[in-house]
């Protein structure tokens, strides 16, 4: 006792709030102004922070200025700059002014809308905004609130997949008995995101009951409906129970698209839950010229896309739609006494806690609503198209340099390419290719002027360039290509054959 501050303790005074927030906003604005001057990929060594910051917490308040100074000196050097116009790794996570404003409002109100009663506006706006986006994507009416379906905002695709897996699992197990869990089988292609693997484990299905079916270059690395059907029949013959199929529109390694309609028919024939993961490419499907990739979506039970990737919505915001919300609710709802209320019991309201893992949830709908209103559908389409155009530019630059080759067809704004080893018909070609491209990628990333990552499909190592950071312009892509060419020349000269 006696160590508490004697002054009134006031952590949320509107005047201070306004003043200090403005300082932080100016700090962030400066960061964006300078972002091109930082090495895109952080150059610090593991453990760098330990020697720079005190090893225990301060006992008394510290001035904001000191904290911002430390952020400048110690934190920014340890950032990999995802908002840099020269960031081409993974997939972009678009920040935007509107996304930030929405995030600020969400954080400012700091309400928790696990039930309708805990913030009716948050629940009802979520229902409305998910219908808006469903319309933008031309999802069938069964996914909208008016058609007995509905959308919900999750933090991540991982969460969306875990929840839909749990719903599918419980739907089957309540019929056949919970001991049959060892018989449930989940299907996907070998290109499906690893979050399916994680989800399968989390819902208690053994890893040996996940079929990652092989894909081929000749089919653009998409899942063949015949391969799927053969696998299902084999499993049925062995007494197993096919449960869930995950199709992908825009795979992470190379942007491949599974044939949704044909897969949907197989799923329907064998009564599988069909989920479509369009985390990255879903955003593009608001443009009529990309919408055909979703043809057959009416055969799906659930569909998800990350608005925090390509939709100008700051982290985090994953949109999940389901045809039958009851299947989610049956699996995920809990109703302890302290959460009971008349609104919930009237059954006329949505309690989104029953559509997700956690109880508490953020007012993400506000963010998405601000983003869509501040831009409008036409501008959002323009945004997608300009990124795709930039990717086309890069693709044609790669195609024009005979030292390089494209390794997968480009559908969206992801360009996959590699430097070719000169010698043909040499059985060591692939290991040489790998050596060259690893070196090239390392040189580019260590220059600090760009950041890309690699992937491997069918034993082929390649560089993947995801164009589409919010700040990326044509000059950046031109600069990137020049950098790649220069480093390629060095690497080819210095690699011994
Ligand atoms: C990014 C991505 C994911 C993972 O998304 P999280 O929101 O980080 O869980 C899953 N699938 C695909 C196709 C992705 O591109």
TrEMBL record:
InterPro entries, per database record: Aromatic_deC (IPR010977), PyrdxlP-dep_de-COase (IPR002129), PyrdxlP-dep_Trfase (IPR015424), PyrdxlP-dep_Trfase_major (IPR015421), PyrdxlP-dep_Trfase_small (IPR015422), Pyridoxal-P_BS (IPR021115)
SUPFAM superfamilies: PLP-dependent transferases
Required co-factors: pyridoxal 5'-phosphate
One cellular-component annotation, GO: cytoplasm
BP terms from Gene Ontology: amino acid metabolic process; carboxylic acid metabolic process
CDD domains referenced in this protein's UniProt entry, alphabetically: DOPA_deC_like
Lyase as UniProt keyword: yes
Gene Ontology MF: a single term: carboxy-lyase activity
Bilayer-spanning residue ranges: none
Lineage: superkingdom: Eukaryota
Keywords assigned: Decarboxylase, Lyase, Pyridoxal phosphate
N6-(pyridoxal phosphate)lysine modified-residue sites: 309
Protein family (similarity comment): Belongs to the group II decarboxylase family.
Stated name of the protein: Tyrosine decarboxylase 2
Provenance organism: Turnera subulata
